[in-house]
Amino acid sequence: MRVKLSGDIIVDSCFSFGGMAPFTICCPALSTYFAGKPWSREIIDGALEVMDKALHLPHNVPGGQAEYRQSLTQSFLFKFFLQVSASSHRLSSAVQPGEESCLSHLTNNFVHEGVRGVQHSCFPSGTASQEAKGQAGQSTKHMAGDLHVTGKAVYTDDMPLLPDELHCELLVSTKARAKIVSIDASAAELVPGFVDFTSAKDIPGVNWVGSILPDEEVFATSQVYCVGQPLGVVVATSPAAAKEAMFAVKVAYEELPAVISIEDAIHERSYFDFGPALPHQTALTVGRVTSERHRHMDKAEALDALMKELSEDDNVAIAEGEIYLGGQEHFYLEPHATRVEPGENDEYIVTSSTQNPSKTQKLVSMVLGVPRHKIVSKCKRMGGGFGGKETRSCFFSAYAAVASHKLKRPLRLVLDRDVDMATSGQRHAFLARYKVAADKTTKKLLAASVELFNNGGWSTDLSVPVCERALFHCENVYFIPNTSFVGHVCKTNIPSNTAFRGFGGPQGMFVCEVYMDHIARELGTTREALAHENLYRIGQITPYGQELDEDHVFVMWQKILQTSDYENRRKAIEQFNLANRYVKRGLSIVGTKFGMSFTKTFMNQAGALVHVYQDGTVLVTHGGTEMGQGLHTKVAQVAASAFDIPLSAIYISETSTDKVANTHPTAASVGSDINGFAVLEACRKILEGLGPYLSRCRTPQPTTDEERISTLAKAATLAHFDRVNLSANGFYATPDISWDWVKYTGKPFYYFGHGVACTEVEVDALTGDHKVIRADVLHDVGNSLNPVIDIGQIEGAFVQGLGLFTIEQVVFNNNGHLFTKGPGTYKIPTALDIPRDFRVSLLPNAPSKSSTIHSSKGVGEPPLFLGSSAYFAIKNACYAAQRDALASLASHSCKISGGGLSQGTTRTLTNGCESDEDTIDTTDCASTNGHTSLNGAQSELQTGDPPSKASPLSPPYFRMDGGATSERIRLSCWDDMNVRVRKGDFDAARHWAPLA
Ligand code: MTE
Ligand code: MOS
């Protein structure tokens, strides 16, 4: 953008914009408009009108985001106007008070602000110094940390090639749903290096497999059900040749109608059932209605009846709505990778990047028809799993195994990032419809009903348990006496969605906080204030009948109010927002309570194998896998404590099904809980025999680490000469838990992990960009096994949650192709997206009340939901922007459309000015909205006064789907520009790209 002024008169100008067409375009209409006019405030308003007409995008424009792109170009022009005005003393009167702050967000003023972090943990006082280095409870670095940061750590694809080893490339469907007419690999055979095309006909065992239910074909035979579904593997002598040959395979399809989005699935009633426990049932309910009158009824019906009664009570506020939260890509550093190595007699060694070595072994065994005792499945480490390798990894090993079996050669299958993203499944998107009731006087929640839909993709995989966990978390940290949470798993034609850190829990809790925000606005208060009134206390009972024995969220909430200086900062933000029109700040507090245990009770078991050698060193193997979370370090610390030796004398080399058998995935955050106990049991068994020798060798007591190791060495050697077993296995099964869906009885969770976060953001209302200024996190890990690792987990989970609830957005095209297949289109948080001031503390002196390993608690997933505090802080900032827009009604009639991106309705407010046909007056608006403070706002506005500082306008609840992307933020921060472009029906924007 360029303008040339002579005096105050614009003599020449030029405007060009990217992102408004396939190429950069000029906007001559603007130059014509400006020519000869004086530089003034009025002129910019006219210019924006001109621009709106000249740079109009239809709703179905390729690339989508029509309203956002139009708003953004207008914002850009407006910022340019402000910048030119502000830069010249003569023109500066065109800038109104409160507008200049948005200029600091211009890229030419871009300042790299530093990021700082503070971490607090409380060490059990006095003990650390007496213990050997690295025992349980001490902060020691990740055992493989040095290898990670120097690049020496060996991941699956870092293993040297074996003689004769081949490379595979997956051939996948390019249609969302189609009949396979033919597959022709003849052209592939001509590619130099081509070795084989392996498909369904080459499978010696079964072709139908699955994570829980066998509803997936290893290689598709007659039909495909999603883009990315495997048809076979192409094997060649190099990865490049395999890829080239794969592209040469010709597949002919006959396309069939497909279901992509959750809305499509609801429309087609395309659901999976909840079998085998609940066969033919496509809805599952968690809930409890306490009122006597309704007890005999079905849970959902009872809640409906109760809600109906409540809605007739004048003292009860009701909020009803719908909310969507998109999916999330795992984006682990290491994409799926596996190597299969055949041996004599049908032996196979499968080395892969997996959270689930036993399921890998099982699937390979099934597809090859080879018994499991001949298949060893191993994993040294993963470059991240985040749930994405809980089940989906196993399938890649099965694909490769078929080819290895056919060719009798070792081979590896390593996915490229785009293939990984497009085929291996992601976090489930959720759509929820809710209704919630609260008492207007006491501000207590009375009842909540939620209907959840998650997008399962083409096969069930883990979608049913993900939905269950979401239902178990729909009340988050609040006591609600009457609840009914109903879930459905949508069957669609996208890749099968799978586990992702939190496993549905964060989605369920998000819905809860959204309905809390909604009902709070109805009650004329804030979500934070309402939350405070309704936090769970000890002895209260969850919707699934579990009595709570801890109320750490309540305790931590009070604490964080102080440590974050919440009240003062909230007031300061209030002032800041009154003083700044286009830069808004928001502050929010979010609590979380995460149920710990697999909801499938039988999965809560673990095994271990421990060997003590005569040099005083110990080799530990357990059923858990290392994905960067520090599990091996924590488990080794448990063993170090048991033998009273330093961590350096313990080694964990890998996870392997021939050392510990019949394991479950390392998931549900209970890796250290259950494997720690299994290892401890093995250590205790060894110590039974070794104990007498140790007592002898421990006089005098060893004081240094070296003495401790040599003491164990002496004892082990003596014991060995006395023919005492120095090896043992250990086993653990989590006690006291059970859950029966049919009888609706039991205790699904052994205990809960808790956390609270207070986050402040700053939003650029003109672009929708935001930054997280500060986040305070307080988290409960019981007595930490390793405070620094736990804090690392909390920081990582928080930031991954930040990504989910803000910038990350999965987009599918209408034809079922994933559009966001790499870092170019899919944005995860990076260095400057983390909180600029990040303060993480562990709740001190709070050993787990349940009997857990060294009184610790699992930490991997629970803090993820705390990242949503950024979303709610952003939303508070958007409310502030809407308040300004409402306030401007005082001076002129202004049409304001109602809220979030996906809200189709347009609500129009007037202020006693002449109304045109499409204008409804606010009394109508207030009654449909049921919102009281809007009425208050209206009367205040009619006086023509700007909102006073004492009684700030409180805009009504609006829907803003998650995550809070810049598009959603920009369109929620109302002003003349985006109101102008938002005349149409918002849902139309989805036609280009359905949010699956
Ligand atoms: N941390 C790192 N660095 N990498 C990961 O892949 N996965 C998370 C969490 N933390 C993950 C991580 C997930 S989804 C789970 S369930 C837990 O770690 C699993 O490990 P744990 O049970 O040992 O906590
Ligand atoms: Mo974690 S989603 O339970 O692997």
TrEMBL record:
Note describing how the cofactor binds: Binds 1 Mo-molybdopterin (Mo-MPT) cofactor per subunit.
Pfam families per the UniProt record, alphabetical: Ald_Xan_dh_C, CO_deh_flav_C, MoCoBD_1, MoCoBD_2
Residue intervals of the Aldehyde oxidase/xanthine dehydrogenase a/b hammerhead domain: 150-257
Entry binding sites for substrate: E390, R469, F503, T599
Superkingdom to which the source organism belongs: Eukaryota
Database matches in Gene3D superfamilies: Aldehyde oxidase/xanthine dehydrogenase, a/b hammerhead, Aldehyde oxidase/xanthine dehydrogenase, molybdopterin binding domain, CO dehydrogenase flavoprotein, C-terminal domain
InterPro entries per the UniProt record, alphabetical: Ald_Oxase/Xan_DH_a/b (IPR000674), Ald_Oxase/Xan_DH_a/b_sf (IPR036856), Ald_Oxase/xanthine_DH-like (IPR016208), AldOxase/xan_DH_MoCoBD1 (IPR008274), AldOxase/xan_DH_MoCoBD2 (IPR046867), AldOxase/xan_DH_Mopterin-bd_sf (IPR037165), CO_DH_flav_C (IPR005107), CO_DH_flav_C_dom_sf (IPR036683)
Compositionally biased intervals (Polar residues): 924-942
Family membership noted in the UniProt record: Belongs to the xanthine dehydrogenase family.
Protein name: Aldehyde oxidase/xanthine dehydrogenase a/b hammerhead domain-containing protein
Organism: Vitrella brassicaformis
